[in-house]
Design brief:
The structure is a homodimer.
Chain A lengths: L5 E4 L4 H12 L6 E4 L10 H6 L6 H14 L12 H25 L1 H4 L7 H25 L12 H10 L1 H4 L8 H10 L3 H5 L3 H5 L11
Parallel strand pairs in A: 1-2
């Protein structure tokens, strides 16, 4: 089965990284893959467009993670618990990751998303406040769950698969650690997990320090 | 079980409406509920904040739908299919609904979200183009699936529960039907479904015509 898969991926893209972590956790290594360079716009080539009319990996890849979990339930790490209440918490964190990701992008990549003539200090300030509040919320989740906890409880789940690739941007882009001390402990606990280490973005390995987009948060 | 639930809800809010449709489909009527007026800011009261630090219903309620499906699998309509491929499509549409909703808000409620001094015709124009492309995508999904199809295939699923409350905004806010003819057929097919009719927003019943925010799309 793993051999019949073909994964198109971009280095550092959270949606792609998610799938790669999930494949590692489900012991589905050995899949074929094709690295697309975002710089060269290879992710917008006809080959990919034919597969994915959105030309964005976000939603589709989240579903690939869920598909793999459902099709290979008993293989590797169990990522979605059976208990309905535990399951609901996993899905809640999965859905909420979208908030954290969007708010991080709205600050870190503000100049990339907003054309020059439409930028406003007041808007960026609002985006920063919104991101700070969001980080506080996530830090509170971990605080409440206790030391050494994963995002949805005592076990590593789909919530961690989906959220870790977003959380990893914060230390990389120099977010002040005091904005989210629990998240930073969580990051340190997870960064050497085999599935995450094996799928670490190659260009992050080459250049471990990112730009300082989040320094003034 | 239904009797032990308490639902806080706002009329017309997609996240609330979703839960109400799902409860109907799962035959979990008879739950207690409390109607909160958005106009009076009742959704930001202490009672609700204590339950939901986000003071937004979006993500949490999506998970309530999934929780109910998981806890009451064999009761009422089966909303998540067992087959992994069918299941993946349902989740894909559920995740994608967020795109459609956000892009609709970015046009219909542009003036509400963006302070006066930060508004730009160029930004609104871009938002409109993005919404038109998104509608085309969804219309294409239905076109491909064939006449009388639901969003994820031949059966009504969680994809419809989650997406219908967003789709219902388009005719209400006077979106030109030629922007999404298949979606409008789908809307007509579903609007009298018992679960949807029973949970129709009361203030939409009182005032069936909304403002014309989407007229110039």
């Amino acid at each position: 089965m793993a051999q019949s898969m073909l994964l198109y991926w971009g280095s550092g893209s959270p949606p792609c990284w998610r799938v790669m972590i999930a494949l590692e956790e489900k012991q589905l290594q050995g899949y074929k893959h094709k690295h697309l360079s975002f710089d060269k716009n290879e992710h917008k080539c006809e080959e990919v467009k034919a597969l994915n009319p959105r030309v964005q990996f976000k939603k589709k890849n989240c579903c690939k993670c869920l598909y793999n979990e459902s099709a290979f339930k008993s293989q590797g790490t169990r990522l979605i618990p059976d208990d309905p209440a535990e399951q609901a918490l996993v899905y809640q964190r999965v859905f909420e990751t979208n908030n954290l990701q969007q708010k991080m992008y709205d600050v870190a990549f503000y100049e990339w998303y907003v054309p020059e003539g439409e930028r406003h200090e007041s808007a960026l300030k609002r985006n920063k406040e919104s991101l700070i509040a969001e980080l506080k919320l996530w830090d509170g989740y971990l605080e409440k769950m206790g030391k050494g906890s994963y995002l949805a409880g005592k076990n590593f789940t789909m919530a961690d698969v989906v959220c870790f690739p977003v959380i990893a941007f914060f230390p990389r882009l120099h977010c002040p650690p005091e904005r989210c001390p629990r998240l930073m402990e969580y990051y340190k606990m997870l960064k050497d997990r085999p599935s995450i280490k094996a799928s670490w973005p190659p260009h992050w390995l080459e250049k471990p320090e990112g730009q300082d987009n989040l320094k003034n948060l």
